[in-house]
Amino acid sequence: MQERKNVQHKVFTGIVTSAKMPKTLVVKVEKVKKHPKYLKFYTVHSKFKVHYTSGTYAHGDKVSFIECRPLSKDKRWRIFKKH
């Protein structure tokens, strides 16, 4: 019998930027980084396509999403909770 390992999935929190596709949201995640030489803080962002099955989401909603198996070419994330 094989033992199952507990896998810790990545969880991100971001703002919904597009809710126009069926069962797909585009979520923007921002993080603050520090330049190694000049020690200046700057903001970088990434956009993720996130899958959802139920609920209503609009532009500007804050959501958390979790890593999952590939659902399509670009979607590897699913909604975890709405804040």
From TrEMBL:
Matching InterPro entries:
NA-bd_OB-fold (IPR012340), Ribosomal_uS17 (IPR000266)
Q: Which UniProt keywords apply?
A: Ribonucleoprotein, Ribosomal protein
Pfam family example for this protein?
A: Ribosomal_S17
Keyword hit for Ribonucleoprotein:
yes
| Listed GO biological process terms | translation
**SUPFAM superfamilies in UniProt:** Nucleic acid-binding proteins
| One MF annotation (Gene Ontology) recorded for this entry | structural constituent of ribosome
Q: Which family does it belong to?
A: Belongs to the universal ribosomal protein uS17 family.
NCBIfam families referenced in this protein's UniProt entry, alphabetically: PRK05610.1
Protein name, UniProt field:
30S ribosomal protein S17
The source organism is Candidatus Magasanikbacteria bacterium GW2011_GWA2_45_39
